Hints:
This protein is α/β, with parallel strands linked by helices and 338 residues long. It has helices at residues 9-15, 45-62, 75-87, 139-142, 182-192, 208-215, 227-242, 254-267, 271-276, 278-292, 306-318; strands spanning 3-6, 21-26, 63-73, 91-99, 114-121, 159-160, 198-201, 219-224. It folds into two domains: 3-242, Rossmann fold (3-Layer(aba) Sandwich), CATH 3.40.50.150; 254-332, no CATH class.
Amino acid sequence: MDQIVTGDCLKVLAKLPAGCADLIVADPPYNIGYEYDRYDDSRAHKDYCDWTEQWMRACQRVLSPAGSMYIAIGDDYAAELRIIGRKLKLTLRNWIIWHYTFGQNTKKKFARSHIHIFYFVADEKNFTFNDDSVRVLSDRQKQYADRRANPTGKIPDDTWVVFPRVCGTFSERADGPNQLPEALVARIVRASSNPGDLVLDPFCGAGTTATMAAQLDRRYITIDISADYVRQAKRRVKKSLKRNGQPTLTPLSPLQLTELIRLYQENEIPAELLLEKPKFIKLFAGQLNRRLAKCSAEPVGPPLKASEIASALQTLANKNLLPVLRTDQPSLKTRNPR
Ligand SMILES: C[S@@+](CC[C@H](N)C(=O)[O-])C[C@H]1O[C@@H](n2cnc3c(N)ncnc32)[C@H](O)[C@@H]1O
């Protein structure tokens, strides 16, 4: 438990007991010629597909009967991966599209700006889905002041647009290959596991899954074929738990602050507007407190009051520590503190 292991995931997975993992998050190499430390990302089509089936079978063996498996993949192999999932009789609950901006520049075609994330479960009737830990404000609440709105908000759509690609200037940028955004992986971990559950990632890379599992009070086992990436991922988990260099703000605990910033990013209401509307702050408080209930086995502190949340958001806004939203005017923000 709580290990980042160096090795080939097929060999390491074979040593784990069947059914031990409550959640698997897999972000394999996409076979697009990316330069990894110890892996050749330009395999023949059939070779890559056969390998994908092998590691998916190995993951399925260690997945608990009520477990969930999320797999990220690019366009080139999304169709093949869906077919393998069907062959293995995994139930697909969502085909999520993660849409990001700031993708790679192209000269003669439209720029690629999305990744596919398959959300599979082992048993279509028995799985964990903590809806309250991922809810965001609905349009009925934000735009239309509609009294019929569910006061707890809505479960996000299956197109995820609020998580930008992790760029070189972001504070969460770690050493290591292609990183998934922390807030995106945190959403998966909160939704599909409970505190104390085991989260497994067969392709650890820069260690985003391990870092989020540790931060959210889950256990983890992650694997990478590169000893160098493993070293860096271990350092990242350690640093994140010590919260080196990350903002603190009394009376909020570090986790309360982190989740407040994530909720702000996911709700997409600019601070100026949010702070003018006590109604929104109250809804925020409800969502944040319900979300925090799934972030730790022990309460992370007494429920936050709306006034504490308003004051924290005001301080974060004054210090320019809130993430830039898609709706923000670039001229209003001078730097990106993510
Ligand atoms: C796309 S990266 C994962 C990035 C990760 N999701 C993150 O956010 O940091 C894929 C990783 O798979 C690793 N890898 C490739 N083949 C592997 C294998 N057979 N066993 C374990 N890891 C492998 C690569 O070294 C690389 O670090």
